[in-house]
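Re: S-adenosyl-L-homocysteine structure - here you go.
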Amino acid sequence: MARINAIAPAIVILGTGALDTARRIQARYPDAQVHGLAGRAEADVAYSELSAHLRDLYARGTPLVALCAAGIVIRCIAPLLSDKGAEPPVLAVAEDGSAVVPLLGGLAGVNTMAREIAEALKVAPAITTSGELRFGTCVLNPPDGYALSSLAQGKRFVSDLLAGESTRIEGAAPWLDDAQLPRSTAARRAIRVTPEAWDGRVDELLIHPRSVVAAVSTLDERVAERVREALDANGIAALSLAALLAPIQRAGDEALTEAADTLGVPLRFVSTPAAADAREPLSLLEAAMRVPHDIRAGASPVALALARAPVDPASIGQARGRLTVIGLGPGDAHLMVPAARSALNAATDILGYETYVTMAGPFRADQRVHGTDNREEMQRARHAFELAAMGRSVVMVSSGDPGVFAMAAAVLEALHESDNARWAGVELEILPGVSAAMATAAQAGAPLGHDFCMLSLSDNLKPWEVIENRLRHAAQADLVMAFYNPVSRARPWQLDKALDIIREFRIPSTTVVLGRNVGRPGGQVIYTSLGELRGEMVDMRTMVIIGSSHTRAFSVDGKTEWVYTPRWYR
Ligand code: SAH
């Protein structure tokens, strides 16, 4: 069963020697990213200083798997240890994968993680927790699909057992079948597994199966409150809730998203048969529940279904679909924003122009790649919405920044033109990227240091006269210019024509920077001048930056050349 609301661990390495072990651990947690020390290890995320990085991750509650000496990890985290309450799992793993040492986060499942990682690395985990050693399991850390009712109550219970008490088990606790618990049917203590709320008995360890689904139809803002009232009224513990279910028509409703967050459960949607009334929550449960269950609180606005065992939220209806439009940056993985990498990791479907999709990979076997040579961008954008409306997590890939002569505008145009309510319910996000002009400028220095404009010289989607007119105005305004799509096989003469126009306004010594395949293998930056620039120096993978009258170049030590446009103007 999928972990609910689990944060993906950060796998932290110091050098290339640990990369192989890190990737083996990553295969066990596909959402996890490998963090490598910049300059020492190429990984998914670069960091510059180990202790600051570990502390930052820890403070954000990220489970940590550090491939280095346990002592190093302890020293780094030590200043943050006084607050025992919010403790994510922290493990030290030997670089060669020969030892797995859980250090912190006993109640956040560190021993479970240690076992999972040890299994992936084919070694034995170094478990040191006494209850866990004695009973072969952490009684206070039930598996996914179950929740401990009260930690304080649980701690008392375990110390009683360690002191010699025995226990009964009431209800279904299959994960305890192999545990070496001191069991006795006559015991005063009991481990009770039930969706029912605590009834005040102190001799019990109460564990709730997440077996209840709440369907809501209310348009009321107070959704979470209504659900809690229904649970209370039926004597059901809030922790037994597995999912919140709503009609698909309301997928875009923020009040529902907030309610699910407040209740700490996934939000699922279902479309009811046309005949059923979508406003009637019972019909939602009927349409979505695939396992035997009893109905409680059938009346509007909340209906509850109680299953006999934990319910996997993924098996109920569909998620709110997601479409994330990302930019890969110019090509180098280090120049992709971490949010884009996370979106790719979480994606079920990846779409985009073949070359870019290949650049964004490799992908896992469970991810569907819809790479296409199809240049029809509107069609691709519509395809993305169709997939997302089915509840999938779609990522649309562009190079550079997705909003600069790329897919983000096509995606928005598709949405704007559509009256499909399912598309409107899709969670749409556009993540920025490093555009070719920025990547080229950074390598050259700071040619965009003052006012500049970005122009596409492609007349595929706009008339050439418009381009000429804009060039003339930009040249006259003395703006630095960044040309995208400067030439292509089908557009051989346009760049030379554009340069002719600019030469009417700028002198031949005007600084020009060409960035070719920047951030990609064989990438180069060429410095030239307006007078020397010829169309044949440029291809379709080149960024052309034409300086203003103030843009200048200089070299230090006779080798490194820098180009910049000063921040002032006179
Ligand atoms: N969205 C992209 C631009 C797409 S238009 C971005 O923000 O960068 C395609 C044009 O971008 C190409 O014709 C070329 O002019 C430029 N370009 C894209 N990637 C480049 C790279 N790595 N190096 C140089 N120019 C690049």
